[in-house]
Amino acid sequence: MEVATDGIYFIIYVTYIIVTTTCFALSSVLYLTKGIKTPLSNNKSYIKGKNLIATGILMEGFVHLLMFITIVLGYDYQNMYEFVIPTIFFIQIIVIYAGLQTFLYSKVNVSYKLGVYMSVPIVVIALIHYAIFFIPGIHAIVDSNNLTASYDAYLECATSRVLDALLTAYVVTISSIGIYFLVVSKVRFLSHIRHYHDGEVCSKCTWIHILVWSLIVFYILCCVTILVTTPEFNVTSLWIQFVLSIIITISTLNIQEIYLNLGPAFGNANANSEEQQTEVAANGDDPISVIIDRWVNRGDRPYLADGLTVNKVAEQMCLNKRLFSQYLNNVLNQNFNAWLNELKVKEVKRIIEEEPSQNFNTIANRVGFTDAPSMTKIFKSVCGMTPTMYRNSLQKE
C-alpha cells in the first residue's frame, strides 16, 4: 500500500472537509424538500425515492467524515478501504438502488428483505475479520506467530487478505448486477412512459437518464476506489464523487417535474394485479380514464393503427386486459370495437372539417376502414347521419 506524503495528506485533508460538508448539505436539501401536491402526481412515491437518495448521500458524507477523523487522529486512513469502506458502500448500493427503483416504479422494487439477505455475507465476513483480530483465542489459532501485532500488520497476513478479497469480490459483483438492473429498469421505464406520451413530454425524462448514468458512474468509481487505494487516485475520486453528488441531487429535485407532468403513468406502472387495478378503477377520480385519454390524445393517433386488438391496446396502456374491457363495458358502456370505431369516426369528422374537399375513399384509407361504404355505415351508426350529410351540414353553417 502506497504511503502518502505530507503534501498529499494536506490535499486529502482539505478535500475531505469540502466533500463531507457538501454531502451533508446536499442530503439536508433533499430531506427538507417537500413534494408538490397535485392530483396527477405520485407525491408519496417521489418523497420516498427522494429520501432514499438523500440517505445514500448522507452515508457518503459519514464515510468521508470517518476518513477525515482517521487522518486527524494520525491513523493510516487507507486501511479503511480494507473492510469498513466496502461494507458501508454496499449498504449505499441497496439504499440508492431502492430510491431509484421507487422513482421508476412508484414503489421499492427490491424488497427490504432481499437487501437484508444480500447484506448477510458482508456482515459475516466483517465479523470474522474483526473476531480474528480482537479475540485472542481465535487470533492464536489463525496467526500464532503475531499475537501482539498491530492492526496494520494484521491486515497484511494471509487470512486478512483472503477475507478482504472475498469482501471486495462480493461488493463488486453485486454492484455490477445493480448496474445491469439499473439500465434495464431505465429502459422499461421509458418504454412505459411512451405508452402515455410522446414528443416534448417524453423529453422531460432527460433527468432520469442523467440520474441513472450518474449513479452508474458513482458505482463504478466506488468499486475502482476499493481496488486502487493510492493517495493520488483517492483525491481524484473524491472530487469526482463531489461532482456526482451535486448532479444526483439536482437530478432528484428535477425528477419531481416529471412526476407532475407524467403523473398517471407512474401510478399504474406496476399495478399488475387485477385487485390493485380494480381498486384504482373504483376511485372517483378514475386514473384509468386519464390513462385512456392520454393514449387517445397522443400525437401519433395510435387508434388508427392496423390490426389493433383489445390485447394490444391494453398492453400499450400497461393495463390488465380484463380490467380494460370491464372499464369499456361498465363505465363507457361500449365494447372494444364500438369504442375504436367511435375514435375513428371522430377522426373522420376532423378530416372533413379541416379538408372538406377530400374524397371519402382517401379518408377511409387514412382512418383504417376497408372502403368508403364501410366507413359510411359505421359513421351513420355513430352519428346518425352519413359523412356526406355531415359535410353538407358544415357547408350550410
Keywords, separated by commas or semicolons:
397 residues, mainly alpha, Rhopdopsin 7-helix transmembrane proteins, Arc Repressor Mutant, subunit A, 18 helices, 0% strand
Individual helix count: 18
Shape: elongated
Tally of separate domains: 2
Sheet with the most strands, sense and barrel status: none
Percentage of residues in helical conformation: over 70%
Q: What fold name goes in the CATH topology slot of the largest domain?
A: Rhopdopsin 7-helix transmembrane proteins
What is the architecture of the largest domain at the second tier of CATH?
Answer: Up-down Bundle
Q: Over all CA atoms, what is the radius of gyration? A: 30 Å
End-to-end separation: 88 Å
How many extended strands? Answer: 0
- One letter per element, helices H and strands E, the order comes to HHHHHHHHHHHHHHHHHH
Indicate the mean pLDDT. 78
Low-confidence stretches: 38-42, 267-286
**CATH superfamily membership of the largest domain, which one?**
Rhodopsin 7-helix transmembrane proteins
Return the CATH class of the largest domain. Answer: Mainly Alpha
**Binned strand content:** under 5%
SS class: mainly alpha
Summarize the structure.
The protein is mainly α and 397 residues long. It has helices spanning 6-32, 43-72, 84-105, 112-134, 136-142, 151-155, 158-194, 200-203, 206-227, 231-267, 274-281, 287-296, 310-316, 321-330, 336-354, 360-367, 372-383, 387-396. It is elongated.
